[in-house]
């Protein structure tokens, strides 16, 4: 067996940009040489339990034989072909499975490269739809504060406009409409005024609004906030009342993460346009999809162009579609239902004591998402090393120490993650209480 060559950390530091980092003040990086199940193996031989599912995508764990076999077979027959004027089995298979899993009104699938592109596609669909309805002035998107929908320019325009990741781009980003974020916690009946700012905005601007976009039930990178399903029910009704499309961004929440196959199922509603990604392929390769209804597709077809104006080079990539098809097969077995329920129950028990620690603002658990929110921003680089020393891969951001582990995690591995979260939260709280303010390195990833 060929020995793994050493990782050239110096080259990496000098020349390779990592997400949300500086090239002149680079963060430390950790070299990963392999991964299996829920564990990452570093180049020094240390194994870390992965608490992030590689940014919430590897829900089945690493090196799952079923997905690897599907990709290997596809690789030897058709790894890529243009999608313009061509179709193939793996694209058809994954689209059939997506339509079978999602709500009945969604009948059309656009295969995209990534989650951000799926959001771009959804927004373009909404604008073209209204052109086909002879209402071309409906060009704005309405959303809620604290949201996150991606890093490309249209997606940035509907991310949080105040404390979000993209506020430095100013007027270069399209100015959209924002209202207050949902405040009623998950599992509670809607506070009577929680939808009032949304209703007011729709009442005043509906003639120029093409769609509302929202992350259902959980606002992810905007703070891991869980909100009432009644808010979604009311929002669906408002969109119908004011003739505005509803785009649901399930890129982070889809495929079981919140305890339902899709988070919109908590509210028993349907989207006009739905975005999925991340766990679509089980995290093995990049692929996303935007689904829409017959009505939306007809409106786009009736628009002046007569066609939908988008077509990525790697659209419908056969290798990615094969991975997604295999991942969806695993989802369809429904083992995730019991797995996520067990993860949720264990995290509720093991994270609850952290709520009494100094410096902790809140502890939240929903499905396979566990969060300790601190009162002060965290030093990501410092805490990253602390977690590695504890044998886990947990990457805090903002004020949040959180995990979204693979569904296949066992109880002992999950306990190691929750113990690490609590230990680090205690350390941070004690440092703050003693006046040891951390030098802030704010990372959003």
TrEMBL record:
Give the UniProt keywords, A-Z.
Aminotransferase, Biotin biosynthesis, Cytoplasm, Pyridoxal phosphate, S-adenosyl-L-methionine, Transferase
Residues where N6-(pyridoxal phosphate)lysine occurs?
Answer: 278
Q: Which InterPro entries match?
A: Aminotrans_3, Aminotrans_3_PPA_site, BioA, PyrdxlP-dep_Trfase, PyrdxlP-dep_Trfase_major, PyrdxlP-dep_Trfase_small
Q: Where is this site: Participates in the substrate recognition with KAPA and in a stacking interaction with the adenine ring of SAM?
A: 20
Q: What reaction gets catalysed by this protein?
A: (8S)-8-amino-7-oxononanoate + S-adenosyl-L-methionine = S-adenosyl-4-methylsulfanyl-2-oxobutanoate + (7R,8S)-7,8-diammoniononanoate
Q: Does the keyword Transmembrane helix apply?
A: no
Identify the residues that bind substrate: 55, 148, 278, 311, 395
- Superkingdom assignment: Bacteria
The entry marks the following residues as binding pyridoxal 5'-phosphate, namely 115-116, 249, 312-313
Give the enzyme's EC designation: 2.6.1.62
PANTHER family listed in its UniProt record: ADENOSYLMETHIONINE-8-AMINO-7-OXONONANOATE AMINOTRANSFERASE
Q: What is this protein called?
A: Adenosylmethionine-8-amino-7-oxononanoate aminotransferase
Give the organism, scientific name: Shewanella algidipiscicola
């Amino acid at each position: 067996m060929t020995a793994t060559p050493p990782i050239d950390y110096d080259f990496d530091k000098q020349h390779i940009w990592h997400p949300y980092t500086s090239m002149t003040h680079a963060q430390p990086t950790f070299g990963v040489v392999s991964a299996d199940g829920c564990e990452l193996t570093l180049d020094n031989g240390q194994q870390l339990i992965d608490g992030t599912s590689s940014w919430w995508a590897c829900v089945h764990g690493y090196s799952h034989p079923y997905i690897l076999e599907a990709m290997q077979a596809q690789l030897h027959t058709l790894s890529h072909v243009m999608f313009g004027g061509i179709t193939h089995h793996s694209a058809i298979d994954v689209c059939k499975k997506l339509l079978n899993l999602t709500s009945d009104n969604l009948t059309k699938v656009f295969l995209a490269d990534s989650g951000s592109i799926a959001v771009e596609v959804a927004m373009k669909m909404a604008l073209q739809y209204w052109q086909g309805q002879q209402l071309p002035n409906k060009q704005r998107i309405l959303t809620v504060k604290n949201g996150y929908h991606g890093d490309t320019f249209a997606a940035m325009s509907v991310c949080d406009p105040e404390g979000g990741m993209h506020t430095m781009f100013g007027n270069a980003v399209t100015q959209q409409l924002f209202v207050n974020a949902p405040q009623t916690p998950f599992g509670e009946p809607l506070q009577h005024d929680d939808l009032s700012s949304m209703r007011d905005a729709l009442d005043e601007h509906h003639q120029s609004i093409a769609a509302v976009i929202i992350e259902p039930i959980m606002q992810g990178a905007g703070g891991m906030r869980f909100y009432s399903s009644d808010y979604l029910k009311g929002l669906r009704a408002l969109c119908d009342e004011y003739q505005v499309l509803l785009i649901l961004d399930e890129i982070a929440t889809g495929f079981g993460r919140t305890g339902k196959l899709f988070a919109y199922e908590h509210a028993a509603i349907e989207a006009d346009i739905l975005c999925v990604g991340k766990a679509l392929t089980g995290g093995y390769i990049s692929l996303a999809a935007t689904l829409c209804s017959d009505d939306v597709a007809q409106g786009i077809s009736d628009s002046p162009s007569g066609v939908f104006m988008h077509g990525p080079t790697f659209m419908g990539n056969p290798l990615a579609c094969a991975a997604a098809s295999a991942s969806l097969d695993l989802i369809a077995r429904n083992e995730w239902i019991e797995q996520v329920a067990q993860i949720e129950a264990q995290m509720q028990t093991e994270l609850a004591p952290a709520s009494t620690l100094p410096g902790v603002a809140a502890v939240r658990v929903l499905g396979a998402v566990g969060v300790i929110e601190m009162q002060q921003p965290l030093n990501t680089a410092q805490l990253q090393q602390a977690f590695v020393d504890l044998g886990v891969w947990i990457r805090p951001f903002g004020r949040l120490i959180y995990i979204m582990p693979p569904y296949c995690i066992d109880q002992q591995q999950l306990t190691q993650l929750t113990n690490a979260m609590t230990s680090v939260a205690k350390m941070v709280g004690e440092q703050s209480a003693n006046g040891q303010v951390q030098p802030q390195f704010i990372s959003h990833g």
